[in-house]
Each structure stands twice: as structure tokens, then as C-alpha cells.
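Appendix C: a fully annotated inverse folding record. The material below is reproduced so that readers can follow the format used throughout the book. The structure is listed first as C-alpha cells, followed by the designed sequence.
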């Protein structure tokens, strides 16, 4: 029972070392776990299968800490297993902000503040900071600015905990539950555990590691450091933040009387396929640097006039690599700092060159057609049938009316100022004109077909002004309009055109909508609310639900964000948008608590996540 550190520079083969050990132990040990962050689990599973050279493995497993937590919860029982999703958390936070808006000095109910509150509560939980800790700090703080911030944060945090207590299991609490209950199970008892691909750990994760070391036969953690000594100046040591992690692990072992095994140092670099990249890696932050004297053949710089030219140049080079150098598309990756600045250009330009590309991004659900349809229904009701909201609803393609007739209706309504209450009764304008009477009668039929179900929906929703009734009536309306069948027909048409991405988006988005409606009933139940408030809650829930995406085929260029994506081994990488101040970024969002606040709290024993300067050092390390 001990902790072993495998360390070395990036590319020194730490992961490969772990997997080769697993291959040797696979027939000797009953339980072997490889623990990775969520985004690395799929790659790690492939590596595991490749290393053991088997189609099925029983006693070795790639697992994330949250998955392990859920396994422990299901084994011990007694824990409320009703999970609160991110969108549920956002809807609940919005409601709390709305209820406390007159008692808050810094925070309002804007969407920016919803995100700020959610991030702050997550950060506090991850670093083991309780409401009592915040209250103690508020009482003894001399900084009026920080004290006022903390008072707002306490109100939100306390309200949130009260509302979820004994009702929901919040994702951020999973690791705390894991650390507290791991000893009650035999899940990791006498197991061999590897912890790989982590750049650092939160307080919660350190607590879990402590329990793992106590119960497992051996725990191995890989770290990206060049030596075990900590450099005191982060400006001189690119591995500074990782060495702080190492120092904390050593302290954890010492304070809990655990065993620290002999570390393993891997000093050979395998990652680089040419000496130019190896030289750049050694010298980019080294003072003094060593000049590369040979001709540079494998690293190129392109100075573009604008992002469009930049992406177009990459497309041309990718075609050249594929046609002339024999590379597959999957051997090529593109990375950037801000994927949203380039995603639309990639989508526009790459099809022109017939380059298949997978954009590794989380898409905002509010941009989805089905979601826009659901929201348009509520926009009509809360805006009392404004002309704009009615035609937004009609033009989304879920109403059984021909497009030409919709345009005729729109022209008529624009000409005669049809809006709000005028929608609720038959059109009379131009009825006396015999040449147009039949056309107006048809427009009245369309008006009845569209408006009458919506009027009925509004009447039913306000009959009992609570979240549960409004949700049930909205769902009934969706069923009456046969939306599920219409979505299925769209999916079938998309499948015929082989548009797999859109097929998956339609399927996933509708299921997410249904899940959110269920969650609204679960969270708010009989809570009284107006249609306006209900619409805002639903919109916020949808905004905080993201559409994931998986590659439609293996042979694609991968385009991802440096902070989120980790590509497999590739032969050619394009880094775009590498402008001064962008990558590495100098404009870090500090959050609700700024760097000065964090430093004061740290001096008083409350250590939170990295500040903007530490994040800048992390960007430098990523480069």
C-alpha cells in the first residue's frame, strides 16, 4: 500500500510505461484500474486493448473518478440517486437569484451571473470550502469589497444547498461522497491503480487519492516534471505548477503516514519525430536558449492577412499532404485557442476542398431548430401573439402549412397591422372585395389552424399557474401537433442524404428537451410562476444543455480547442490563431472572485482554483 510517482517531460512515455506494466500484470492481478480525466477515457480504453492484445479484458479497466463514485453509491445505497444536471443547476440558480434579487449587492439575475454563481459554487465544493468557512472569513475580513462579495455568495450557496438537500445528488458532490465511502466497499481493495493524464488535482481529488493509497496495493501517478526539486520562480520553470502538485502529493503522504515508493524517472523523449520539434521544446522557454543552426524543414510559419486566408491556406496544405505525402486525414490535426472564432470558417471552406473534418466542440442547444420551435411557442404566449413571434413559429417548418401560404399570410398581416388581439378573431379586411374574398377565407382558415391551439394552450397553462401544470400542458401541445412524427420524418430524409451529424443532432436534441421538461417538474413542482418566468427558466435550461458530437468516420481531420481537446498521435499539426495575447491568452476571466480576493482567502487558509497568472503559466506549459 503505497504511492509511486512516474515522472518525466512530456513525450517521455509515462502512459506507455503504465500500459506496458498493465500488460505484464494482467494475468497476475485481480483488479487493475487506469484512472483518467473524462476527455481521455476513450483514448485510454483503446490503448489498454492494444497493450494487452485482447478483444476482452475482465480484470483491467479504464475508469473516471465520477464513474467510480457512482459505482460506490450504487453499492453502499442510502444516497439519493436523483442526479441534478448542469441545466437543472442553472435553472435552480436563476430561480434563487430571482428570489433574492433585492438582497444581493453584487449579483443580479442576468445570465452572466448565473454562470458566475455556478462556477463559484463548483469551485468552492471542489476545494472543500463550506458555507461555514465562508461565514468565518466574512466575519474576520477587513476588505469591505471582498466581504460584500462573500455575503452574496453565501446567500446563493446556502439557498442552493437547502433546495437540493436530501432531494438531489449534485455532480460536484460525487467525489466528496467517493472519498467518504470508498472504505465501505471492496472496489479498490488490494487493486493496482494508475492515475494518468491529470495536470493537477482539486482538494476533492486529493481526498480520493488519499483513500485510494490507503486501500489499494499500489497507486501510481504520472506527472509532467523534469525533476523532483521545486523551482521557486515560476517564470523560469515551465513545470512549476506540476511541481506544486508533486509537492502536495508528497505532503499528503507524509501527513497521513502513508508509504511513498521509489519514484521512476523517464528521461528519454519519444514524442518528437524530428529534431527541430525536440530542439524547440527544449529551448522555447529556456534562458539562455540555444540557436538551431541547421535548415528548418518541418516547422513552418504562415503570416495571414485575416482568418479566412489562414484557414484557406491550411486547406490547401492538407490536400497537398494527403495527395503528395500519402497522409490520411486522420493523421492531421488543427488546434487553436478559441474554437468559436474559426469553426464557422472551417465549416465553410473545408467542404470546398472536399476535406472531411470533425470539429470537437460543444454546440449551444438554443441554435437547434427543435429547440427554437419550443421556445417560439412560449414567445407567442408571453408576448401576447406579437406578429414577429407568430411568424417565427410558422417559419420553423413544424406547422402543416405551405410556405407560399405563410408568405401570403405575412404580407396580409403586415399590410393591415394584424397583431396581438387581432389574431384572435376572423380577418375582415378586404372581405368585401369579391376578387379577394376566397383568399381571405383561406387566410382565416390558416389563422384558426395556427392560433386556436395556441389560445387553448395559454388558457390551460394559466389555469394553474405552476411549473408542473405548465410543463404538462406544453408537452400535451407538442404531442397534439405530432412533433415527434415530424422530427422522425426529417430524420428519415436526412438519413437518405447521409447527413449523419444532423440525424444525431435531431435525435439528441429532442431527448434533451424531454429530459429538461422532466427536470423542471422535479425541481419546481407546484411552484407558482408566470409564463414569462417559466419561459426564461426553460430557455436557461436549454442554454446550459450542450449537444455533444462524435466523429462520423475515422478518417477525418480533427479540429479542436487546446484547452479541451487532446488529439491522438498525428503526423502533422496546424496551430491557428497563434497571435500575441491570444495564445497564450493574457485576458483571463477571473470569475466572481478576482486574483486579489483569492490571495486574501489563501492567506487565511482557503485555497481556491488557479488565478489568471497561474492560468497563463499553464498556457505556456501547453505550448
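Designed amino acids, in order:
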Amino acid at each position: 500500500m503505497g504511492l509511486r510517482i512516474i515522472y518525466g517531460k512530456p513525450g517521455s512515455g509515462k502512459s506507455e510505461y503504465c500500459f506496458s506494466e498493465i500488460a505484464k500484470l494482467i494475468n497476475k492481478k485481480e483488479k487493475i484500474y487506469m484512472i483518467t480525466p473524462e476527455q481521455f477515457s476513450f483514448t485510454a480504453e483503446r490503448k489498454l486493448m492494444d497493450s494487452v492484445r485482447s478483444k476482452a479484458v475482465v480484470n483491467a479497466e479504464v475508469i473516471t473518478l465520477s464513474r467510480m463514485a457512482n459505482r460506490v453509491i450504487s453499492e453502499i445505497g442510502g444516497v439519493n440517486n436523483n442526479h441534478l444536471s448542469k441545466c437543472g443547476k442553472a435553472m435552480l440558480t436563476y430561480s434563487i437569484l430571482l428570489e433574492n434579487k433585492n438582497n444581493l449587492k453584487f449579483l443580479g439575475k442576468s445570465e452572466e451571473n448565473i454562470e458566475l454563481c455556478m462556477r463559484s459554487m463548483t469551485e468552492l465544493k471542489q476545494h472543500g470550502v463550506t458555507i461555514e468557512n465562508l461565514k468565518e472569513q466574512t466575519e474576520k475580513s477587513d476588505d469591505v469589497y471582498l466581504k460584500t462579495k462573500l455575503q452574496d455568495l453565501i446567500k446563493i450557496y446556502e439557498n442552493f444547498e437547502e433546495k437540493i438537500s436530501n432531494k438531489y445528488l449534485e455532480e460536484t458532490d460525487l467525489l466528496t461522497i467517493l472519498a467518504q465511502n470508498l472504505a465501505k466497499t471492496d472496489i479498490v481493495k488490494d487493486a493496482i491503480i494508475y492515475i494518468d493524464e491529470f495536470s493537477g488535482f482539486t482538494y476533492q481529488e486529493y481526498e480520493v487519492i488519499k483513500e485510494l493509497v490507503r486501500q489499494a496495493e499500489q497507486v501510481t501517478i504520472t506527472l509532467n516534471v523534469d525533476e523532483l526539486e521545486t523551482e521557486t520562480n515560476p517564470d523560469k520553470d515551465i513545470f512549476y505548477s506540476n511541481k506544486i502538485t508533486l509537492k502536495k502529493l508528497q505532503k499528503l503522504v507524509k501527513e497521513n503516514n502513508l508509504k511513498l515508493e521509489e519514484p521512476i524517472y523517464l528521461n528519454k523523449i519519444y514524442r518528437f519525430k524530428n529534431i527541430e520539434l525536440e530542439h524547440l521544446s527544449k529551448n522555447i522557454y529556456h534562458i539562455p536558449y540555444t540557436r538551431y543552426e541547421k535548415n528548418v524543414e518541418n516547422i513552418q510559419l504562415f503570416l495571414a492577412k485575416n482568418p479566412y486566408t489562414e484557414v484557406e491556406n491550411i486547406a490547401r496544405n492538407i490536400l497537398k499532404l494527403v495527395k503528395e505525402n500519402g497522409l490520411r486525414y486522420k493523421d492531421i490535426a488543427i488546434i487553436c485557442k478559441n474554437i468559436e472564432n474559426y469553426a464557422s470558417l472551417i465549416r465553410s471552406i473545408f467542404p470546398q476542398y472536399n476535406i472531411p473534418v470533425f470539429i470537437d466542440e460543444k454546440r449551444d442547444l438554443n441554435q437547434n431548430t427543435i429547440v427554437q420551435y419550443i421556445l417560439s411557442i412560449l414567445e407567442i404566449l408571453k408576448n401576447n401573439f406579437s406578429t414577429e413571434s407568430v411568424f417565427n413559429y410558422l417559419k420553423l417548418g413544424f406547422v402543416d402549412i405551405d410556405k407560399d401560404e405563410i408568405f401570403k399570410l405575412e404580407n396580409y398581416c403586415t399590410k393591415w397591422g394584424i397583431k396581438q388581439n387581432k389574431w384572435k378573431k376572423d380577418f375582415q379586411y378586404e372581405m368585401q372585395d369579391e376578387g379577394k374574398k376566397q383568399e381571405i377565407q383561406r387566410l382565416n382558415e390558416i389563422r384558426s389552424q395556427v392560433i386556436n391551439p395556441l389560445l387553448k394552450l395559454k388558457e390551460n397553462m394559466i389555469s394553474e399557474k405552476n411549473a408542473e401544470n405548465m410543463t404538462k400542458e406544453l408537452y400535451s401541445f407538442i404531442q397534439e401537433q405530432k412533433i415527434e412524427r415530424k422530427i422522425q420524418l426529417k430524420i428519415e430524409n436526412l438519413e437518405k442524404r447521409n447527413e449523419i451529424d444532423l440525424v444525431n443532432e435531431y435525435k439528441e436534441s429532442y431527448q434533451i428537451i424531454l429530459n429538461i421538461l422532466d427536470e423542471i417538474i422535479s425541481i419546481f413542482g407546484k411552484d407558482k410562476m408566470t409564463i414569462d418566468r417559466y419561459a426564461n427558466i426553460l430557455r436557461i435550461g436549454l442554454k446550459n444543455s450542450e449537444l455533444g458530437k462524435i466523429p462520423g468516420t475515422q478518417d477525418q481531420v480533427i479540429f479542436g480547442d487546446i484547452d479541451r481537446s487532446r488529439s491522438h498521435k498525428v503526423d502533422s499539426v496546424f496551430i491557428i490563431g497563434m497571435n500575441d495575447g491570444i495564445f497564450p491568452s493574457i485576458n483571463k476571466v477571473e470569475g466572481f472572485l478576482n486574483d486579489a480576493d483569492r490571495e486574501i482567502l489563501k492567506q487565511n487558509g482557503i485555497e481556491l482554483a488557479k488565478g489568471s497568472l497561474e492560468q497563463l503559466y499553464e498556457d505556456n506549459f501547453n505550448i
